[in-house]
Predict the 3D structure of the following.
Amino acid sequence: MEQYDVIVIGAGHAGVEAALAAARLGGKVLLTTVTLDNVAFMPCNPSVGGPAKGHLVREIDALGGQMGLSADEACIQMRMHNTGKGYAVHALRAQADKPFYHNLMKKIVENQENLDLKQLMIDEVIVEKNEVKGVKAETGEVFAAPCVILATGTYLRGKIVYGEVNYDSGPNGTRAPQKLSASLLHIGVKLMRFKTGTPARIDARTLDYSKMEPQYGDAQVYNFSFLNKVKTREQVPCYLTYTNPTTHKIIRDNLQRSGMFNGYVEGVGPRYCPSIEAKIVRFADKDRHQLFLEPEGLDTNEVYVQGMSSSLPADIQIEFMHTIPGLEKCQMMRAGYAIDYDCLDPLQLKASLEHKQISGLFSAGQSNGTSGYEEAAAQGLMAGINAMRKLQGKQAIVIGRSQGYIGVLIDDLVTKGTHEPYRMMTSRAEYRLLLRQDNADLRLTPLGQEIGLVNSERWSSFTAKRDLLERTLFSLGQTYVAPTEENQKKLAELGTSAIRSKISLLELLKRQQISYAKAAQAFGLPELPAVVAEQVEIQAKYDGYILKQRQEVAKALKLENKLLPESIDYRSIKELSTEAAEKLATVRPVSLGQASRISGVSPADISVLMIYLEAKRRKEEQ
Amino acid sequence: MEDTISAIATALGLGAVGIIRISGPQAVDIGCRAFRALGSKKLGVQEDHRLLYGHIVDNAGQVIDEVLTVYMAAPHSYTGEDVVEIQCHGGLQAMEEILKLTYQLGARAAEPGEFTKRAFLNGRVDLAQAEAVMGVIEARSKQALQGALAQQRGALSRAISVMRTQLKDLVVRLEATIDYPEEDIEEVTYNSACEVIAQSLQRVEQLLSTAHTGKIVREGLRTVLVGRPNVGKSSLLNRLLQEERAIVSAIPGTTRDVIQEQILIDGIPLLLADTAGIRTTGDHIEQIGVARSRETMEQAQLVVAVLDGSMTLQDEDLEILRALKGRESVVIVNKGDLHLQVDLQALKAEFGENRVLVLSAKTAAGIETFIQWLKTYVYAQGSAAEGGVLVQNARHAHLLQDAKISLDDALLAAHNHLPYDCIEIDLRGALDQLGAITGETVSEEIINDIFARFCLGK
């Protein structure tokens, strides 16, 4: 029997990050997958990033994870969204070459030291006395490990439905584990059933792009990774087209044949990516919906129809697509479908992503009820890190809500749970202005260094940037502009008002009209790398708001630092409201801060807990 | 938790000196900014536990009152936190002004039992009191669910809901365009944002303007009965108490941590100076005499002057009537069942037609009119608000004040066309603060609304 430190079940976006992180931290790792042909496979849209998701990718990169670097290489179009809406919500989104991304990740995983990649159907997680011992495959092989990370995505008892067609399957016709769910239930894991879906893929040769609106990538070359390795990039356009009342009529006339309505789909689907039939039912007054046609890669004719996820029968999917401008003669290569799958109720997990009752069992990604490649990768990275730290006897790494979107994501999951596939959104982050995608490295690379995932190349480029930034901010704060005639003239040329008394350059940069580049030219400042100049501008212009958010963080931290002992019997505290006592007993928060975020726990309940804790402390002292 | 709180810490009628207590990390800072000591001394560690003489000066540099101030450094204070106590002589008005100044300088109104709660958490009061404090918190939330208070709360919640709905709608529209940049959602214009924010701001200000009345309803109207001996003050009080609608209750002080008596007459809460004394000794106030009455009048919000209608005005009566000048007052001409010797017309000419009431404590004639008068007096100030909504709770008033600041900032940001992410900080701040009043959490609501309103996603 082979002995590993960490076994990861599933080699999707969560599994790959988990396995790579654990192996890079020195663990002996087994990564299993039902098919080697689906390593880091993108079963849905061929893209990475977007609002909040792009932030997650940058955070993964800042910590030393893989997704950003691979997405940069696989990228065939990159755009920075929301540039007019403020730095906090700038969002990088890439179209990815799907087969390329899979091949690249597979190559990286295959060549990672300490990592074995195997095609295996895992039937069982072996647990003794609430401690993980290993896994058993359908072949009868047993692999031993003190830590097992579930990263089963949408495969677990997966069932594909479109129209009357329905069969047990993972995404794209792969085998779906049938026995693992029972094993998980047997060891005491609580499961939920969720649903998601994907649209049809159509043949690029059969599309009339002249009837659609092209969407090009940005001229400026962006990268997710702070290592910024890709300098030039071949980009291809996407195309925008719309549904119309004829499309909607066909869909409406056939609703009863949709998997969503014919009773074949059991799981709870996400509101944020509704199927086209759900959109038409819920937003009946909208006479058109936009569709983006996204290429699946440079070496394939498959085109993804974003906005048209459906579980209608294949013939209906073809029929309504033919009503859409540019798609009149389209050939469908794969039908869209809905997929039902088992996942864990994340309320069973600690913030380290380890199961509360089963020592050594971790879970990450869609198996925790999330959706999206980026959300999965972020959790995978943290699960891999924390599994290794557990083995090394180190304290788990828990990223705070004020430190990163990764922290918001995991805290939401383990504190509030979720009733539908959870998608990251910038509006979920209360400290959004601090958690910008531009400063993910400043926020998290020192932590990545401490964890041990930041290599010397990343660390030296990071420290160089950080030091230059700090020196620049210091010297700008110390350099004053006097209200001389010459300076006033310069200011007028910069399009800004005159100054009354001397003012530091940092103060001057707070003015909306003045960029670092302009100020540098006018006042003879050194030229800076673009990322540093941008950082200087953001920190100057957002200073007041950043301060406001920092004060909020400081206030919240006081509650975060008040820890709740694991032994509390909430139901015995009669001053708590009944609802609060029940919720607290279920979630078992680690701190008053976490308790305060549970819905149904009021500020009065928090006061009661504070007094209870103090009373308890004093009783113990006596 | 560890913000700085302040409140009047003395009960009415317990002497002429009033104490304002400020507790929390900002106490010294607030104290230093409000207090100018005579000489070169300054509040701070070097003057720990020493009484300093000086003045309280408002933001404009005006002297509010002559005071003694003491700083008690943590942990050697009542609450175990840094505490500054201001002892002032200038009566209720000055105390209220000083209190308001402490709010402006960053303190917030203390909640019921909050000084004691902090004292407990910091180990300053003993274990036995722990459950009592938890009881207060529990009782407060139960009380809030009952009777007239709940009704008022419901009205306030509705008023706030209207505002939140508008603000949330704006936030949802902004968030949807942020989280779904590629969807065809109508962009929000700065003008429309300014309009919504300005409307909400106006509503918050309206509600805030009722906070004073709300405070009376919450804490009781600080009332004092004055009059020379034997005009019938205690009979009047007893008559009021005989009314079936009168409830006398020992309630924990709302801005102070002492037990105080509140008399609820037909829903009008009165805090009567020394009432316990009047009722037990029968004629306690009678013994205090005019000199003491004056001191007590300094601290009252409403002075009820009682005259004996069956006699012509005595020198003492005239002296009392003179002392009413510039105060909120009502003149009661008692013994209205007897032949009136008092010149009513002259009194009405001097104090106003509806500030002079004739009644008989003995026969109860005219008592109803007096009760109606009190009601009108208390609620008149609040009637300007929409639907008669009153902000009664100190915490609510404070949250509204915070919401006002957030909305001011948001309006300025939107006016200057700052990016969405900046405007959103204050908009969501305001939503959070308003939501804390109604007990609604913002972030889930916004996300729910985004999906309910917009058709988004693949």
Remarks:
- Residues 518 and 524 of chain A are 10 Å apart (CA to CA).
- Residues 456-478 of chain A form the longest helix (23 residues).
